[in-house]
Amino acid sequence: MDEYVYGRNPVIEVLKNNKADKIYIQKMNSEGSIRKIYALAKENNVLITQVNKSKLDFLSSKGNHQGVVALVSGYNYGEFEDLIGENIVILDKIEDPHNFGAIARSAEALGFNGIIISKHNSSYVNEVVYKTSAGAIDNVKVHIANNISNEIEMLKKKGYWIYGTDMNGENLYKTDMKGKIAIVLGNEGKGLSSSMKKHCDVVVSIPMIGKINSLNVSCAASIVMAEVQRKNETTEI
Question: pTM for the whole thing?
Answer without folding.
Answer: 0.80
